[in-house]
């Protein structure tokens, strides 16, 4: 690794209206004793003068550590983040969204945990919602989907509460990311095709996949209760319509996300065939149970979600099996690397 330090990545599309407070919070970070810190800001095809604004703002803040500005023409956070990772020199990567306000101790807490706990590959923090309007009554129930709230009961491994952590404020070891790429890992989630969709309806699929890629290598995913940041939520992201769209996006990516747990907890090391059919049959059985038991919780939602899954397994059957077998290959390559070492 080139540097025993930290690379902070911010991907932004037309983020001038959001970046000012975010950069102000970064300028206040405590970097005492950390040998190297850099900020990589990726302009994801913006049209609002993001480059010039960010450069001027960082200079006005005294530029407490080096900022690199790069441009990524392909839409979507995934492409922007990959561009940033190509030039990142730090051993530890910190993902900061353009609407995140990190607490001043964020670098110190994350750096110490990763430096002292080598079994940990990913750290997740606690997003605290911040908005100019009152939070909707439904917000607490869906706070995780907005990258807010605690991600486990206490500091430590997120398993068995969950398998991954949300991308906002997420730390990971670059070495494990590079090793995943070396062993053939490819991102497979069904991402948004445009920046507008990515900003409005993204459910963090790329960050969840990154967690899985690292977890497959035997590293643990931790939540740290003292890693805190404010998450600025504008009024347009706190509407019932936005929530409906968000849930639709989460459900549409659900079958892809389930692939990871299927392969991770299995003993498969060779390709499987017609796995989509097995999932389809299970979906029909589940649908029958829902229809038979009228008192099931969230019955209408579960019926709708299951119908979507059935349609997915029928229409995406070949792609689904390709994704399953890709992860089986990745898992097999990790095993071979372990045996060789």
What does this structure look like?
With 341 residues, the chain is an alpha/beta fold. The chain has two domains: 3-247, Spore Coat Polysaccharide Biosynthesis Protein SpsA, Chain A; 266-340, no CATH class. The chain has eleven helices and nine strands. Strands 1, 2, 3, 4, 5, 6, 7, 8 and 9 form a nine-stranded mixed beta sheet that branches. Strand 2 (37-43), helix 2 and strand 3 (66-71) form a beta-alpha-beta unit. The longest helix has 25 residues, at 240-264. It is globular and about 65 Å long. The two termini are 19 Å apart. The relative contact order is 0.12. Residues 190-204 have low confidence and may be disordered.
Produce a short descriptive summary.
The protein has helices at residues 16-27, 50-60, 77-87, 106-116, 174-182, 195-201, 205-215, 240-264, 275-292, 299-315, 317-340, and strands at 3-12, 37-43, 66-71, 90-95, 100-102, 120-130, 156-157, 171-173, 220-232. With 341 residues, it is α/β, with parallel strands linked by helices.
């Amino acid at each position: 690794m080139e540097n025993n330090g930290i690379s902070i990545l911010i991907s932004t599309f037309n983020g001038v209206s959001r970046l000012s407070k975010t950069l102000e919070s970064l300028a206040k970070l405590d970097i005492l004793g950390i040998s190297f810190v850099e900020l990589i800001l990726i302009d994801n095809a913006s049209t609002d003068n993001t480059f010039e604004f960010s450069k001027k703002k960082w200079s006005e803040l005294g530029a407490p550590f080096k900022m690199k500005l790069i441009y990524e023409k392909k839409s979507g956070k995934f492409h922007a983040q990959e561009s940033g990772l190509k030039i990142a020199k730090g051993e530890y990567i910190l993902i900061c969204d353009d609407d995140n306000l990190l607490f001043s101790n964020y670098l110190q807490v994350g750096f110490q945990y990763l430096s002292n706990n080598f079994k940990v590959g990913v750290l997740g923090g606690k997003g605290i919602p911040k908005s100019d309007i009152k939070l909707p009554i439904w917000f607490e129930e869906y706070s995780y989907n907005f990258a807010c709230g605690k991600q486990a009961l206490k500091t430590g491994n997120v398993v068995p509460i969950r398998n991954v952590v949300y991308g906002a404020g997420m730390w990971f070891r670059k070495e494990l990311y590079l090793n995943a790429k070396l062993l053939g890992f490819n991102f497979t989630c069904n991402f948004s095709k445009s920046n507008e969709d990515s900003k409005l309806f993204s459910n963090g699929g790329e960050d969840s996949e990154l967690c899985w890629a690292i977890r497959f290598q035997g590293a643990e995913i931790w939540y740290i209760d003292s890693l805190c940041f404010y998450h600025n939520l504008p009024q347009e992201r706190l509407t019932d319509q936005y929530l409906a769209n968000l849930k639709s996006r989460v459900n549409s990516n659900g079958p892809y996300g389930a692939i990871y747990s299927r392969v991770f907890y299995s003993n498969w090391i060779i390709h499987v065939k017609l796995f989509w059919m097995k999932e389809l049959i299970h979906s029909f059985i589940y649908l029958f149970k829902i229809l038979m038991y009228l008192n099931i919780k969230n019955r209408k939602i579960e019926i709708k979600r299951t119908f979507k899954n059935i349609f997915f397994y029928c229409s995406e059957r070949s792609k689904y099996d390709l994704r399953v077998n890709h992860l089986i290959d990745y898992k097999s390559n990790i095993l071979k690397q372990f045996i060789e070492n």
